[in-house]
Design goal:
Helix content: under 10%
Shape: elongated
Number of strands: 34
Number of helices: 3
Structural class: mainly beta
Length: 477
């Protein structure tokens, strides 16, 4: 074998360069890479890396994460000749940092990092459609099953480029096992070993000249029975709430019905039930990968708890309805509270029906909610009705020295069940009830037997006068 020592001619981008070589020379000092002969170019183009102390038996050059082919002898101290590699990952940026290693030691860059920008030749490749080749499932695949993805478009082989790799990017990223068949300018097929997670994906193809093309594949991977719901967070937040309800007309018409005097009136400002209780907001952020636009895949969401004393489980329905759906609930107090049809000639009222809602703030935001009133078992029924009037919410009976633990669950249309990530606990509060305004009216309102007023304790109190009883109803007894 002939050994050439002295000069070597290297062609780099059409330029003939002479470079002195020193046989057996050993670099003194650290390797230094000072410049690239060009700062942009095409895949496969020859590029010079110029510097000092670049001689070595083992020289490695990387363009980003891709290793370049080193073409000249390892004895040149001043120049390394390399061929621009294709991008290692089609997601890599067009501008990459070039790094140089000589005998395992990275070169210094006294003029700053070496940067190289890939020039992608036009026209760019375009992916217009995709398919699996399966008539039963043309644009989706079963999780963990091998499949082929057939991509159609334009310019796949224009300018001698060829497709070299394909990534499926979604809940996880999977790389194709390789090409399936010979690509054409408008069609290419890649094989995959399978996708491990259900959901939407994007297929990204990398080409030999550094160009890329991509297409989105919504809900591409699925499980046989669909994906289970995902409960990202749960909440059981309690606060002390205050209420005040005007019961003036209810008392006046109630006394009218008892006495037959239609002009009984409470002293200003009237009769008001006031009090406080513990408000509770139960909510869970729930989604399902199988949901379609305008159609949730969540069939049922609940917050369940073990009822104190009774020791059986109760499940409260959580909904994402923006409080648009109402369910009926009757009043609890003995006083008839629906006086909307009463008149001077017919002062009788009737039981009031409430329309309970979920308390959900907005529909379609995946936040499933139920607002609840935590009330003591001995709480006055007037306060219960006042709470429902001001905030039409479900009630849970809970003593002030007791607590309950909530478990959140979600079921989708395929029957998949998911439990929440936490089981929050809520302690009971102490309810307070009172009456303000007309003394006689308040005493009558709080009496234990509204059908037979006035109780003995109300005798002599001022208020509730009429033309027949100017001194007041209670003072007349």
């Amino acid at each position: 074998m002939n050994r050439i020592v002295g000069i070597v001619a290297v062609v780099a981008i059409g330029i003939l360069t002479t470079i002195p070589l020193h046989a057996g020379a050993i670099s003194s000092g650290p390797p230094m890479a000072q410049r690239l002969s060009v700062d942009s170019g095409l895949v496969g183009q020859t590029v010079l890396i110029e510097g000092r102390n670049l001689a070595g038996a083992d020289r490695v050059v990387r363009f980003g994460g891709a290793s370049a082919s080193v073409g000249n002898s390892g004895r040149s101290r001043e120049v390394i000749v390399v061929e621009v590699p294709g991008r290692n990952d089609p997601r890599d940026p067009e501008t990459v940092t070039v790094t140089v290693f000589v005998n395992g030691q990275e070169a210094e860059y006294p003029n700053g990092p070496l940067q190289f920008r890939y020039e992608v030749p036009r026209p760019y490749p375009i992916i217009e459609d995709y398919g699996t080749g399966d008539p039963q499932s043309p644009q989706s695949v079963l999780v963990a099953q091998p499949f082929e993805i057939h991509l159609t478009g334009a310019h796949f082989t224009t300018g001698h480029r060829v497709p070299v790799t394909c990534l499926a990017i979604g809940p996880t990223t999977e790389k194709a096992t390789g090409l399936a068949g010979e690509p054409t300018d408008t069609e290419v097929t890649f094989g995959f070993a399978g996708l491990q997670y259900p959901g939407s994906y994007q297929f990204l193809v990398g080409f030999s000249d550094g160009s890329t093309a991509a297409i989105a594949a919504p809900r591409f991977a699925y499980r046989l029975f669909g994906s289970p719901p995902v409960i990202q967070q749960v909440e059981a937040a309690s606060t002390t709430e205050s209420v005040s309800c005007d019961f003036t007309k209810i008392v006046e018409l109630g006394v009218c019905a008892f006495t037959g005097m239609p002009d009984v009136r409470a002293l200003p400002p009237g009769v008001f039930i006031e009090g406080s209780y513990t408000g509770l907001r139960l909510s869970a952020l729930i989604s399902d990968p199988d949901a379609a636009p305008g159609r949730s895949d969540i069939l049922l969401a609940t917050a369940s708890y073990l009822a104190p004393v009774l020791s059986y489980e109760i499940s409260l329905l959580l909904v994402d309805d923006g409080s648009s759906v109402a369910s009926p609930s009757q009043q609890q107090a003995g006083w008839l509270e629906d006086c909307s049809d009463a008149s001077p000639d017919a002062c009788a009222c009737r039981p009031l029906d409430f329309a309970l809602t979920s308390g959900d703030a907005a529909s379609g935001d995946d936040r499933y909610t139920r607002e609840v009133a935590l009330v003591n078992p001995t709480t006055n029924s007037l306060l219960l009705d006042c709470i429902t009037k001001q905030s039409p919410r479900t009630r849970i009976l809970l003593a002030h020295d007791d607590s309950i633990v909530f478990s959140f669950e979600a079921v989708d249309r395929e029957g998949n069940l998911t439990f929440g990530p936490a089981r929050p606990s809520v302690a009971g509060g102490t309810d307070v009830v009172g009456c303000a305004g007309d003394p006689c009216g308040c005493c009558l309102l709080l009496s234990p037997d509204p059908a037979a007023p006035p109780p003995t304790g109300c005798s002599g109190l001022e208020g509730m006068p009429s033309s027949a009883l100017p001194g007041g109803f209670c003072r007349s007894f």
